[in-house]
Amino acid sequence: MLLRFRGLNLSQPLPLFLRHPKTLNPTLRCLSSPSSSQSQAPLPSSEPAEWTDDIVYLDESGDVICSGRGLRPAEPGRDAHVLDGGLLRPIPRSAAASKLVELARRWRWGPDLDAHLDRLPFPADPSLLSVALAALPASDPQPALSLFRWARRQSWFAPSDSTYALLLERLFAAADFDAIQSLFDDILKAATFDDAEPSSTSFSSSLNLVVQYLCQASKLEISFSCFKKLRDAGFREFNTQTYNSLITLFLCKGLPYKAFEIYESMESSGCSLDASTYDLMVPALAKSGRLDAALRLFQEMKAKEGSSRPGLPIYAALVDSMGKAGRLDAAVGLYQELQSVGYRPSVTMYVSIIESLVKAGKLDAGLKLWNEMKGAGFRPNFGLYTMMVESHARSGRLEMAASIFADMERSGFLPTPSTYACLIEMHTAAGQVDPAMRLYNSMTNAGLRPGLSTFTSLLSVLANKKLLDLAAKVLLEMKAVGFAVDVNASDVLMIYIKGGSTELALRWLRFMGSAGIRTNNFIIRQLFESCMKAGLYDSAQPLLETYVGSAAKVDLILYTSILARLVRSQNEKNERAIMDIMSSTKHRAHEFMCGLFTGPEQRKKPVLSFVREFFQEIDYELEESAARYFVNVLLNYLVLMGQMNRARCVWKVAYENKLFPKAIVFDQHIAWSLDVRNLSVGAALVSVVHTLHRFRKRMLYYGVVPRRIKLVTGPTLKMVVAQMLQSVESPFEVSKVVLRAPGDSVLEWFKKPIVQQFLLNEIPSKPDVLMHKLNVLFPSSAPEVRSLSPPKSLAMSR
């Protein structure tokens, strides 16, 4: 029988096992132990039958080395000895382990491997399995896993924590996480085989390794599931490294609150915290806003014996989080502490604390650290420059903002449009036109497009400074870059109108027309009213025509305001211009005015009916206040024109329509009063005459005489009404805001002829007053007026 050892190292002669030591099997030689050189034992008496075939051992060239009877088991499967010819020799454990390694590497897995392992010439045991597993190559976990699965089915198998740890290491190196999970289930079953709870002493190392390896591989769901299974099963031997692995994984996945749960579980289990735990948890707690917990853990870390000083990342996280949370005193204290323990602040820390101070409005402290940062050789970044410039600008420190802005440009940073906009807006708010325009020109020269707010602030300050030509230039540039300029142009126009610069407003409106920019009817109306106030009637006329031509409705208030200008006008030329403007309104009030001054033949109805018809067409729900304003101005105009009868008709109809509902008060026999405080001068005079006429009727014809009569005028109209009544010797006494008289005195005053003429017709003229005085001096010459004497029955009853 010829044997060739295939698969061996052929660089040496072929082996002759235990006969020629120089030609030993290289695999067995490298795994042999000192026990292999023990003395030869004699053949026992119960020697089994000898083999008849010879075994010839050949070298590489095919030459015969030797021949003889080969090795055979003394008692196959039960004894770890072999017969070498006639000698009984023990099998070395290294040779047995090498046999396991050889079979596992050759067959790898499957029934062939199991069959060869079942026919081993020696019994295996757990220690032999451990040696074989350790000898298998770490790069290929399949042979080791197959050998382990075969051993697990044997009766001599006993689970070992070191064996599981070795297999887990091989599987993790090969990234076979499904096998790791399967092995974890096996470990868990082995741990709960005898007891209801896992053994915390036998497999703690391997169970911790499973969680750690899965965490290192970023298997979030699987690792946390294994951790939860162990915790639910009652496993309490998690080590610090396992907790740290889970915390690291959750933080990397952006789940800080799950990391905090693991940390709380770690604290409740009594597991000690190491430096890695502090390095993980303090920044995580700080960044998540749990500042008190972070500070507590930070102080615990410093107070722990044998612990090193906190690292710079911990200080940086605490300073950053404290600053962002507004706890500036704590942030500055930690900043000073890290300097005192020998750390040099990083540029990131400088940026963080300066931003916190600046955002909190502590510009002086921020500027101090800014200078310290530059003195330390750090260069501020673009964002910090921008914040410093904008913060100082918004706080009104324009000089410092301009200085930092210039330093920013010298450092090679191109300011953003927002930085330019902030500086321009702050300069314009301060009314500084020249710096604002320089910044605007620098911005446009740099190729940046100003925003809408920048253009708006520039136009506002230019309009307020009355720099119309410069404002027109900026507006055209705004239009050229694509912004809608109608609203901004109208805003500039309103600034001129509100500022009383009517001439500039008219110039700006002409510029808007030439540039094709339209404005709204509201601003046209405002400009028209400004022109009316300034007496620019020639400019007001085309504005009103534009207003009416754009389908805008001239309301009663606008027409009344024009009428009020006519009342105050003292120039015939201006009066004609105002009359033309009133005609251009095309308002129905103008038709009423024209009809009021014509005769009854042309009106074809009495004045009172004509007035009632006009006031019936007014919508009092919408125009009540406008109608009241119109009555006041119209009565001024009618009194000024001497049209007392027409004025009394207007007042009568206005009172009938309850435009002045609380003007006249009849308090039975106690007091009658007339309140004219809210009326114009003409309306007050007309209302006094008309109301006194009503009082006269009640007193003379109906015999009702009150105790007193009051005319409530207020301080403004007091003298006007008093002078009118004084011309007819009225009994009213003048006080601060009221004209009052007893009812009996007023009754006697009503009986005088001039009072009858005064109340029935109109305000007496100077000749009428002179004739009244003559009649008083010479009563025999006074004509009798029967209508002034009360009827007999009334007089007797009185």
UniProtKB/TrEMBL annotation:
<feature type="repeat" description="PPR">
    <location>
        <begin position="239"/>
        <end position="273"/>
    </location>
</feature>
<feature type="repeat" description="PPR">
    <location>
        <begin position="381"/>
        <end position="415"/>
    </location>
</feature>
<dbReference type="InterPro" id="IPR002625">
    <property type="entry name" value="Smr_dom"/>
</dbReference>
<feature type="repeat" description="PPR">
    <location>
        <begin position="346"/>
        <end position="380"/>
    </location>
</feature>
<comment type="similarity">
    <text>Belongs to the PPR family. P subfamily.</text>
</comment>
<feature type="repeat" description="PPR">
    <location>
        <begin position="274"/>
        <end position="308"/>
    </location>
</feature>
<feature type="compositionally biased region" description="Low complexity">
    <location>
        <begin position="31"/>
        <end position="48"/>
    </location>
</feature>
<protein>
    <submittedName>
        <fullName>PPR repeat</fullName>
    </submittedName>
</protein>
<dbReference type="Pfam" id="PF13041">
    <property type="entry name" value="PPR_2"/>
</dbReference>
<dbReference type="InterPro" id="IPR011990">
    <property type="entry name" value="TPR-like_helical_dom_sf"/>
</dbReference>
<feature type="repeat" description="PPR">
    <location>
        <begin position="311"/>
        <end position="345"/>
    </location>
</feature>
<dbReference type="Pfam" id="PF01535">
    <property type="entry name" value="PPR"/>
</dbReference>
<dbReference type="InterPro" id="IPR057027">
    <property type="entry name" value="TPR_mt"/>
</dbReference>
<feature type="repeat" description="PPR">
    <location>
        <begin position="416"/>
        <end position="450"/>
    </location>
</feature>
<feature type="region of interest" description="Disordered">
    <location>
        <begin position="28"/>
        <end position="48"/>
    </location>
</feature>
<feature type="domain" description="Smr">
    <location>
        <begin position="674"/>
        <end position="750"/>
    </location>
</feature>
<dbReference type="Pfam" id="PF23276">
    <property type="entry name" value="TPR_24"/>
</dbReference>
<dbReference type="InterPro" id="IPR002885">
    <property type="entry name" value="PPR_rpt"/>
</dbReference>
<keyword id="KW-0677">Repeat</keyword>
